[in-house]
Automatic annotation (TrEMBL):
Top-level taxon in the UniProt lineage: Bacteria
InterPro entries, per database record: Amidase_dom, AS_sf
Gene3D superfamilies: Amidase signature (AS) domain (3.90.1300.10)
Pfam families per the UniProt record, alphabetical: Amidase
Amidase domain boundaries: 27-468
Name of this chain's protein: Amidase
Signal peptide: none
Length: 488
C-alpha cells in the first residue's frame, strides 16, 4: 500500500479492505511504519513517536493468519493504534516522556491496552507527551518538542500532543490519550481530530501513570466520530483493580456505534456558554469559526440557549481543580509500586536525578509543597462538589442535552509559548463526559496553508456518551470539516 493510500482510512474502510482481500494487516502496518519513517524524524520532523513497536509486524501476521483460519474477528481487528507513552504496554518502554523512567518495560498491559489487544488491535507505537502529562505543549526530556503538522511553528496542544500529531498525520489508524484537565481534547482541537474524555469511571486507569486519580481518565483520539465510538466501545467497562469503574459493574456494555445518527442534532437543546468565549482580538479567529459552527448546529435542528456559568474556566483551574494537589501523592504511590524496576520513587528522586525537562522543574518543586492534607484541599473538594451539583442542575433545569463552547478561546499557541485560554477544565472537575470535534480552520497563512484547526467542545451529563456521539456525529456529517495536514 502506497503512503498516500493509507491517508484518512477509517476503521470501516480498513475492515472492508481486509474482508475483500485487497489489503492485509501486514501491508497496513507496513504502510503506517513507512509514514512514520518518512515524516516523523525526516521531512517535517513532527517528532511525535517515542518508540515503534518492534513486534507490530509479528502481531499483524498473527491477525492475518487468524483471518485465513476463519477465526472470529474482534471489533478492532487489524487496527493499528498509537498509544500515549504514559500507558503501560507489555514489552515496550513506558516513560511518561521522562528520562527518569527510561528503561522501564512493563510486564503487563494496562487494562485498556489488554482490551484493545483482545479486540484485535495492533499496538503500533508509543507517542510523545508533555512530560508526566504536566502541561499542554507536548515537550519532554525523552523526545523534545512535538510539532503541529498543520503549522510546524505551533505546538500540537497537550499533554497528549504526540498522539494528536501522529493521528492527524496518518501515522496510525486511531490513537489513545489521557486527560486530567485538557489533555485529550486540547490536541484533538489543535489537530482537527475527534477527542473523547469519557465520564470519570467509564474507562479504567489501571496501568496508566497517574497525575490526579480524582480527574484522570483515558479516551480515543481519532480522525472521525465513528472511529472514536468503536474504540470507546472496546476500552470502556469494569475493572476490579480500579474502584472508579465500580458503576460499570452493573451496566450493560454499550456499542456506541449504534448511536451514530445523521439526525442526531434534531430536537437537541444545547447551552452556549458565552463566558467560555474570548473577547479580545487574539480570540477573533476562533470566534469566527464558532459563529459558523453554532449556526450549523441550529441548521441541523438544535435549539441553542445562551447562558453564562457562575464561574470561568480560569477560576476552575486556579481555585477548584485538584490535579496539582494530587500529583505528588498519586505519582509517588505509582512509582513505589514499581519497586526496583525503576530508580526513582518520589518527586525528590526525579529532581535529584536531573533526568527531566527543565520546563517542568517548577511543577516538580511545587508538588513537594502541596498536600491533600490541608484546609485548601478540603475547600477545593467542597467547591468541586458544589460545581458538580450546579452543573447538573443547570442541565436539568434548562433541559439541556449538552453545553457547548470552543475548546480553546485562541488558536493553539506557537512553540515556546504556554498554552492559554483552554476550557477543558469544566469536564475535568465535574467528571462529566466531554467531546471535542473539528469545527473549522483559521485563515490560511504561510506556515499554516490550510489554516489552524479549531475544535468545538460538548459537555454532557454523566454516562451521556450516547447523546454526545449522536450530537457530534450529526455535526461532523453535516460539516465535513476534517482535512489532512499537508505533510510532505
Amino acid at each position: 500500500m502506497a503512503l498516500q493510500e493509507v491517508q484518512e482510512l477509517t476503521i470501516q474502510n480498513i475492515h472492508h479492505l481486509l474482508q475483500t482481500g485487497e489489503l492485509s494487516v501486514r501491508e497496513l502496518v507496513q504502510a503506517y511504519l513507512a509514514r512514520i519513517e518518512q515524516f516523523d524524524q525526516q521531512g517535517p520532523a513532527i517528532n511525535a513517536v517515542i518508540q515503534v513497536n518492534p513486534l507490530a509486524l509479528k502481531a499483524a501476521d498473527e491477525l492475518d493468519a487468524a483471518r485465513r483460519r476463519g477465526d472470529a474477528c474482534g471489533l478492532l481487528h487489524g487496527i493499528p493504534v498509537l498509544v500515549k507513552d504514559n500507558i503501560e504496554t507489555a514489552g515496550l518502554e513506558t516513560t511518561g516522556g521522562s528520562l527518569s523512567l527510561a528503561g522501564y518495560i512493563p510486564q503487563q498491559d494496562a487494562f485498556l491496552i489488554s482490551r484493545l489487544k483482545q479486540a484485535g488491535a495492533v499496538i503500533l507505537a508509543k507517542t510523545n507527551l508533555h512530560e508526566f502529562a504536566i502541561w499542554g505543549e507536548t515537550v519532554s526530556s525523552m523526545l523534545g518538542q512535538t510539532l503541529n503538522p498543520y503549522d510546524l511553528t505551533r505546538s500540537p496542544g497537550g499533554s497528549s500532543g504526540g498522539t494528536g500529531s501522529a493521528v492527524a498525520a496518518n501515522f496510525g489508524a486511531v490513537g489513545i490519550g489521557t486527560d486530567t484537565v485538557n489533555s485529550v481534547r486540547s490536541p484533538s482541537s489543535a489537530n482537527c481530530l475527534m477527542g473523547v474524555k469519557p465520564t470519570l469511571g467509564l474507562v479504567s486507569r489501571t496501568g496508566i501513570i497517574p497525575y490526579s486519580l480524582n480527574q484522570d481518565t483515558a479516551g480515543p483520539m481519532t480522525r472521525c466520530v465513528a472511529d472514536a465510538a468503536a474504540v470507546l466501545s472496546v476500552i470502556a467497562g469494569y475493572d476490579s483493580a480500579d474502584s472508579a469503574t465500580a458503576d460499570c459493574r452493573t451496566k450493560e456494555p454499550v456499542n456506541y456505534s449504534a448511536y451514530l445518527n445523521n439526525e442526531g442534532l434534531r430536537g437537541k437543546r444545547l447551552g452556549v456558554v458565552r463566558n467560555f468565549f474570548g473577547k479580545d482580538p487574539i480570540h477573533s479567529e476562533v470566534n469566527a469559526v464558532m459563529a459558523t459552527a453554532l449556526q450549523q448546529l441550529a441548521d441541523q435542528g438544535a435549539t441553542l440557549i445562551e447562558l453564562t456559568l457562575p464561574w470561568t474556566a480560569d477560576f476552575l483551574i486556579s481555585d477548584v481543580s485538584l490535579h496539582q494537589y494530587d500529583f505528588r501523592e498519586h505519582l509517588e504511590a505509582y512509582l513505589e509500586g514499581l519497586g526496583d524496576q525503576v530508580s526513582v520513587h518520589s518527586i525528590a528522586d526525579i529532581l535529584a536525578s536531573g533526568k527531566y525537562h527543565p520546563g517542568i522543574s517548577d511543577t516538580l518543586n511545587r508538588a513537594g509543597q502541596l498536600s491533600q492534607r490541608g484546609d485548601e484541599y478540603a475547600r477545593r473538594v467542597r467547591l468541586r462538589q458544589e460545581i458538580i451539583s450546579t452543573t447538573q442542575e443547570l442541565l436539568d433545569n434548562q433541559r439541556l442535552d449538552a453545553l457547548v463552547f470552543p475548546h480553546q478561546k485562541r488558536l493553539v499557541v506557537p512553540v515556546g509559548q504556554p498554552q492559554l485560554d483552554r476550557n477543558g477544565v469544566l469536564g475535568a472537575v465535574t467528571g462529566f463526559p466531554a467531546f471535542t470535534v473539528p469545527a473549522g480552520f483559521s485563515q490560511p497563512t504561510a506556515t499554516a496553508p490550510l489554516g489552524v484547526p479549531v475544535g468545538i467542545e460538548f459537555v454532557g451529563r454523566p454516562w451521556a456518551e450516547p447523546d454526545l456521539f449522536a450530537i457530534t456525529y450529526a455535526f461532523e456529517q453535516a460539516t465535513s470539516v476534517r482535512k489532512p495536514p499537508l505533510v510532505k
